[in-house]
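About this split. The held-out portion is used to measure sequence recovery: a designer receives only the structure tokens and must propose an amino acid at every position. Recovery is the fraction of positions where the proposal matches the reference. Here is one held-out target exactly as it appears in the evaluation file.
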């Protein structure tokens, strides 16, 4: 007696065993059913009352036989299409042919005078042909295109290459610039700028400087006809020295011939006393006699006189000793 029977007999009420069928038994029972398998459409909406009135494509699909019988079939249903697979002898012959072709191709590539045979069909911009090609064919095509282009370049000469021709310059809008005209305009502008700078420099000078420059030019022009040496009895030199005005000349008041006070530029001068300056410029005739300077000229001459006096005193003391 098993444990389950013992427990059921003494402590529990025994239930009847459920009638269970195994999958294998169900499969065997299914084999005996000769009915066909019908796959019907579950989406029938009931528009057609008679199922026979439907088209063949829309009707249920009937599969003859049983699925178990299909699985039970052990013979292969595959069909061979085309030529049968080659045998081992045919495969060996094909491999030998391929090896011989590869050997011939490598021998041709190794030779120096080998040029791939290329059909002149469509060409790309680089000179190579379109389509599936090997690297050697593409290299040969590019080399041939380069050689043709170089031969054509050498044959055309300088007319097409542009060698020796003048460079064409263009502005931002694309118009041709005349280089000669632009150079002439630049040269003219440079001359105008130089003349303007010279005029500004000349305007900064006074009338006395300009008159002195003209006088110097005249002296240089006359010096060509003058003797090499000038003595104390030279008339022109003596007249020039007499014409000079010295503000500290004590004998100036004894000169019988009075000259009219005019400047170098021809304008009248001031006739009264005036403080001297470093440049020897006398005031004009419109000066009111008031010194509006900073006193630098007075201090300048005072320092010069003091230095001269100290030098004279130093010399005198040395002589006394």
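Reference sequence for scoring:
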């Amino acid at each position: 007696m098993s444990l389950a029977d013992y427990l059921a007999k003494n402590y529990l009420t025994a239930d009847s065993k459920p009638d269970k069928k195994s999958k294998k038994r169900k499969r065997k029972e299914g084999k005996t059913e000769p009915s066909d398998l019908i796959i019907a459409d579950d989406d029938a909406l009931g528009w057609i009352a008679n199922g026979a009135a439907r088209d063949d494509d829309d009707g249920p699909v009937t599969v003859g036989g049983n699925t178990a019988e299909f699985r039970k079939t052990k013979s292969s249903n595959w069909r061979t299409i085309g030529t049968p697979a080659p045998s081992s002898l045919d495969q060996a012959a094909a491999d030998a042919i391929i090896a011989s072709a590869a050997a011939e191709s490598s021998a041709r590539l190794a030779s120096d005078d080998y040029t791939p045979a290329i059909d002149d069909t469509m060409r790309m911009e680089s000179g190579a042909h379109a389509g599936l090609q090997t690297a050697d064919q593409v290299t040969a095509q590019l080399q041939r295109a380069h050689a043709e282009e170089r031969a054509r370049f050498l044959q055309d000469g300088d007319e097409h290459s542009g060698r020796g021709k003048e460079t064409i310059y263009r502005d931002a809008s694309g118009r041709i610039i005349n280089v000669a005209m632009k150079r002439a305009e630049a040269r003219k502008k440079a001359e105008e700028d130089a003349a303007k700078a010279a005029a500004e420099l000349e305007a900064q000078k006074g009338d006395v400087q300009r008159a002195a420059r003209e006088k110097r030019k005249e002296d240089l022009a006359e010096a060509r006809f003058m003797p090499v040496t000038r003595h104390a009895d030279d008339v022109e030199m003596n007249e020039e020295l007499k014409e000079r005005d010295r503000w500290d000349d004590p004998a100036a008041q004894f000169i019988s011939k009075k000259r009219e006070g005019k400047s170098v530029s021809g304008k009248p001068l001031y006739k009264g006393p005036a403080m001297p300056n470093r440049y020897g410029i006398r005031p004009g005739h419109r000066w009111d006699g008031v010194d509006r300077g900073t006193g630098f000229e007075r201090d300048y001459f005072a320092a010069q006189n003091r230095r001269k006096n100290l030098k004279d005193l130093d010399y005198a003391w040395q002589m006394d000793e």
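Annotator remark: The mean pLDDT is 76.
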